[in-house]
Amino acid sequence: MGNEGLYSDEKVCSSMKFEVVATKGKARAGVLTLPHGTVETPVFMPVGTLATVKAITQRELGELGAQIILNNAFHLYLRPGVEIVKAAGGVHRFQNWKRPILTDSGGFQVFSLAKLRKITDDGVHFQSPVDGSKHFFTPESVIELEEGLGPDIAMVLDDVVANPATHEQAALAMRRSVAWAQRAANYRSRDDQAVFGIVQGGLYEDLRIESAQSTVQIGFDGYAIGGLSVGEKPEEMYPMVDTCCRVLPAEKPRYLMGVGTPRDLREAVASGVDMFDCVLPTRLARHGVAVTEEGNLNLVNARHKTDFGPVDVHCECPTCREYSRAYLHHLIKCREILASRLLTYHNIHFYLSLMRSLRADIMAG
RNA sequence: GCACGGGUGGCCGAGUGGCUAAUGGCGUCAGACUGUAAAUCUGAUCUCUUCGGAGUACGGCGGUUCGAAUCCGUCCCCGUGCA
Question: Which nucleotides in chain B lie closer than 7 A to a protein CB?
């Protein structure tokens, strides 16, 4: 049962399994089995930071075919607090989502909160962006938090630096991330929850290789590529993704965190990435932008005022089948909440369809 | 008819002699957004311009003043009260 680790002392999740079922070049199609169901990869995970994919319901997410969603442990720790989620019976019951859930640790939030934090080798001190209260996270306390929340996959606490960073800064954060990953691995206690390590190293190939090797040596159920799309150009990001995929073991899922644009997804899948998450489709939707094959369509623009055609003639989602650009433009101008809902539905549909077509292409050989 | 109050840029609304092409807000136009402190944020928004400026603007007309959205006269319009 479960995956056998490369190292005898490696802790694994006994109820997680990952199988690569087809490859095309470096791209892979796989099946990821988790406590709450199976996930066909490559997969896009809609972001539901606060236990909600903003603007749409869990029922709608199910209809869209979302296989796994992402929550954020850091945000759920602040509100409503782990005790309430526990009392509800865990993150799945709390939000009534029966399929798999991955929780991000909060490493990225600590990174983006900039002035409100202080990172030491021991952990990270930060002030709550909600009420200013002071908190301290360690690799151990974050694992404890995530084991309390109960997602299928937990991410370790990592140290993220903004690009561009110097080699020294990137190395420091990367080695700290490795040390923290080791502590998280030592501390984890649930064998029904997968834990993923995170590769760092900024835009330096040598650091990415070192990070991937060190993290793999610790042994995790899957491996994430972190610290990308934080200020660098796509042309700088893609080689890093490719390098990481080259070093990471083929038999474990690879997750590119926080990425990205449709182009980013295609490129990264081609390099061998299996999992993605990104706020773009949902955030752009709330900002009036529809993602299409032809690129982003800003429906707030006046040119759509009398355009009674659909957002995307090729799209089969209800938003495109039932409503016009002119109507969506009108809803956006009036700040009607339905605009956010319809566009979120469309954008998630676009992302999930894109991933399904990329998978089908790999399956076809 | 009389007495007060008021008429400011697409709208609302500050401003009561020069620092005012005129604070704000709304609207409008555009841009940004990649492990969500984000249904958010940023910029532009009188006209023309060789980007140095120039012109026209605070109900109309006239006046005072070196200088007026700001003071005076008069006319028009709106609100409230009294006849």
Answer: 27-41
Q: Which residues contact A35 (CB under 8 A, 6 or more apart)?
A: A15, A16, A100, A152, A192, A193
**Which residues 267-286 of chain A have a CB under 7 Å from nucleic chain B?**
277-280, 282-284, 286
Global confidence as pTM: 0.93
Six-digit token string for A235: 């042309």
pLDDT digits (tens, 9 = 90+) for A32-46: 999 999 999 999 999
Q: In whole angstroms, give the CA distance from residue A213 to residue A15.
A: 25
Q: What is the DSSP string of A195-251?
A: EEEEE--TT-HHHHHHHHHHHHHH--SEEEE-S-SSS--HHHHHHHHHHHHHHS-TT
ipTM greater than cut 0.95: no
Structure tokens at A144: 């404890």
Task: Pull the structure tokens for residue A295.
Answer: 């690129």
Please identify which residue in the block is written with the tokens 């899922």: A253
